[in-house]
Task: structure prediction
Amino acid sequence: MVTGTPYVGSEVGRLREVIVHRPGIELLRLTPETMDELLFDDLLWVRRAQEEHAEFCAVLAGAGAEVLELSDLVRETVTVPAAREFVLERTFDERVHGPAAAPVLRATAEAMDEARLTDLLIGGLTKRELLELTDEPRSVVLHALGPDDLVVAPLPNHLFTRDASCWVYDGVAVNSMRMPARVRESVTYEAVYRWHPRFAAATFHRWSDGPADGAATVEGGDVLVLGGGAVVVGMSERTTPQGVERLAERLFAAGSADRVVALAMPKARAFMHLDTVMTMVDERSFLTYADLGMLPSYTITPRGSGAEPGEVELEIADHPPERMHAAIAEALGRDGLRVLTPEQDVHSAAREQWDDGCNALAVAPGVVVTYDRTMTSNSYLRESGVEVLEVPGAELGRGRGGPRCMSCPTVREDH
Ligand SMILES: NC(=[NH2+])NCCC[C@H](N)C(=O)O
Result:
């Protein structure tokens, strides 16, 4: 494994480099009216959330990871003219802003320095802010907006850097997102991976084509990199079977993986991604939610090359629910899994799952980061021999994402 070149060899090997995003102005745009659409269940006290996030970053750095802040990456990326062009092209759209306002908005953004433009891309822009920079164009779209309405929507879910892109072995999937509120997040990552000097010079595969993948949605919260060429993907509220097949095909064509286990999950908000109910904590142990139960699963392997170069035919084996753990163990090349399900009553199990108690982020085999509030899960992990590094989650937890959701590993060792 080469440090510096993006490569994620496993779920639990030592974490070397990771992208995070400190909560910022995008979260100050949330109101009781907009929070549902923006996929938050409550409003955050942003100042406190920032403090909590700083502690999270300090724990990651203390565990030996280089912590990259997404807004720094974006700022450095939009200094490259081609990157700037790319994001402007995709942020200002006639179909969203109307033909009258779109060019004016774009010209206004074009004139911004990189810090201001980064704020706009992540934090959005209100009509009032726009009119401080330019005269109001004759646009029905703008005219119909109130002074503090948003002309460019904020991206508060950038906090959860796990989802819009995910590194799997020697390549990255920039994902087509299921929810309208998150679609533009992929544009941010596409620009960073194409033009930021840290990534532009590196060679890596591409496992997907971002929003162009349309209905074949995949989100990183559903993707577990088991190690040794195996991957588990949850088919959830967010990730579709067609998304999984396309991911498998590309991984197999490059020879980067040779087995993908797809789990058929219930489609529910509480279980929106696989990592909300199941995460890996060491080479053979998984922390799982008691009420997840056993799920039907499929093992996808390459059967041989397909008709076109680069195409691979897929072999699909389907398993009944009772074989879920066996299917994952086989993909891992082990006799069995150690399944860790905290012992607690039904109510407390459901509350801790909601508070992301299962969303552990491993920083090394058997060493995980979790929120402090999920106390029963944390002590159960400790009793099971797992080292638990707690971070405060009173505010951060309100967006329905834990430490694994808030991290996008770019360099992680095999285990
Ligand atoms: N990997 C995860 N579980 N991410 C959680 C994302 C939460 C975010 N509010 C959403 O609904 O999309």
User: Anything to note?
Assistant: Residues 39-40, 157, 160, 162-163, 182, 221, 272-273, 275-276, 399-401, 405 surround arginine (CB under 6 Å). The CA atoms of residues 175 and 316 lie 23 Å apart. The first strand starts at residue 7 and ends at 8. The chain has a mean pLDDT of 95.
